Amino acid sequence: MRDNANDAPIEGEIVSEEQQHQPDTTMAMVIYALYLASFVLGFTSIIGVVIAYVYKGKGPAWLDEHYRYQIRTFWIGLVYGFVFSILAFILIGFPLLLALAVWFIVRCVKGFKGLQEKRAPSNVDSWLF
């Protein structure tokens, strides 16, 4: 038995299908991190959505759902942000912008958790959480 799962298989060792085809979730994690970094830097979410479009369709179905979820998070957040910014002129937009920040963080954390569990995020089509 091997100590490290990343070691090459020993001759004659049975390797499960799951061990042979572990999808790389690194880029999906990077995208969530870029989304969260946009609170500090402002532009990193644009880089994240471009990466999500590039990697969409190149992995198993559950991982592709994460890319779809990330793309939807970006565009829905942009629409909400635009509308709430206009509403800020009548002061109701400020608490809504704060709620949007919470919504964005929750979606990113939910996505990170799904990646760690190697499953698709729930409610991908939802405009909420």
What structural keywords apply?
single chain, 129 residues, mainly alpha, elongated
Structural description of this entry:
The longest helix has 27 residues, at 61-87. The protein has five helices and no strands. The chain is elongated and about 55 Å long. α2 (26-41) packs antiparallel against α5, α3 packs antiparallel against α4 (61-87) and α4 packs antiparallel against α5 (93-116). By secondary structure, the chain is mainly alpha-helical. The protein has one domain (25-116).
Number of DSSP strand runs: 0
Q: What is the domain total for the residues?
A: 1
Structural class: mainly alpha
Give the overall shape, derived from the CA principal axes: elongated
Mean pLDDT: 85
**Radius of gyration (Å):** 18 Å
Give me the number of helical elements: 5
Unreliable stretches, pLDDT < 50, 5 or more residues? 1-6
- Estimated helix fraction: 55-70%
Describe the largest sheet: none
Q: Give the strand content.
A: under 5%
Order of helices and strands: HHHHH
Terminal CA distance: 42 Å
Topology of this protein?
Elements lengths: L16 H4 L5 H16 L2 H12 L5 H27 L5 H24 L13
Describe the structure concisely for a colleague.
The protein has 129 residues and is an all-alpha fold. It has helices at 17-20, 26-41, 44-55, 61-87, 93-116. It is elongated and about 55 Å long.
